[in-house]
Design a protein that fits this description.
Blueprint (H helix, E strand, L loop, with lengths): L1 E6 L5 H10 L3 E6 L4 H10 L9 E2 L6 H13 L6 E5 L5 H11 L5 E6 L4 E6 L2 E6 L6 H6 L6 E2 L8 H14 L4 H13 L8 E4 L5 E6 L4 E6 L2 E6 L3 H21 L4 E9 L7 E10 L2 E8 L5 H14 L5 E6 L7 H9 L2 E5 L3 H10 L2
Parallel strand pairs: 1-2, 1-4, 2-3, 4-5, 15-16, 16-17
Antiparallel strand pairs: 5-6, 6-7, 8-13, 9-10, 10-11, 11-12, 13-14, 14-15
Length: 363
Amino acid sequence: MKILINLIGEQTAPNLIACKCYNADKIINVSTNRTKKQSENLKNTFLGDKFDEDIFIEDAYNIFETEDKINNFINNKKPEDEIILNFTGATKPISIGAYLGVDNHNVKCIYIDSATGRILEYLNKKNNVSKINCKISIEEHFKMYGHEIKKKEETERSDKDERKRLKEYLKENYYSCNKFIKKFAKAYNKDTDYFKSDKELTDDGGANSLKWDKKEKKLHLFLSGNNFCIQGDKAAEYFTGYWFEEIVREDFLRLNIFDDTYFNAIIPQEHAKDSEAELDAVATKGYKLFIFECKTSAITKNFVYKLAAIKNYTSNIYANIYFIVFEDFKETSNLESSLKSFNIHVINYSNLGKELNDIVSKC
């Protein structure tokens, strides 16, 4: 029988990778009061019937308690059992104690180096390096940290042809009306009652204007002699940004380079009732998770903090986060520092295909 012993730490990903890569018959988690939740999350994510009762460590900083419990566990197993110790997680004293506990037994020790995509194996004074070769789905990435993720329901719209026409126009002519779009967004974001009455807005040059018909819930756009009519409560959001999310979505589907992709994903937030975090796109390749946020205009520190907060909330330090921007991105020293500190990257839409292929090629 192949038995995998997982030392459970704050990050569940290395444990799930070991479960998937080694296909053990039985899995034993070594947990503490602080990590028993992570242990349960792992069991709920992977094949739960493969797990036996945890080896529970009372004192996470007592090397000898861990050594004794691991040694006793192995002594009660059959000589022919193949035992693997994944010592990637937990506190350093637990890792040391676990190693001491298996030192006099024929046990393979493994370390999951997620950052470089390697598994390091140690057995009988010899070491071996192999590539991490498994897939973790989007659902699993969030479930292993105790979170649910779902796709936002898309409704069929009667004005879909008109939206498509506007989307194609903005893709080719965005810079002829980008200042007007920002002016409109600023106006309705500042006034929470903006759409409760009819509205008209014109840019400084007069080339672009709009009318909001409250009764009909229609947004009439007049952009450099081109007329459009978008319907519904979210018409303004479509004009000021969602059209770009749709374009990015179409490019993702056309490129078809990720294993799993969700668009307009929703993460319910437990600490805030009826609150949800929305992500424009989430994708996986192999064991890696990617989160994308689409912005037509400038990135602000608030946007950076929002993505960083989502990464922190999901507890997944291995998530790779990107902004996809339509306007050419120009870094300021302050923004550059914020992006770097949270390890968030920026992709210019004009280079989207190349950038995504480069990302995937490194997986």
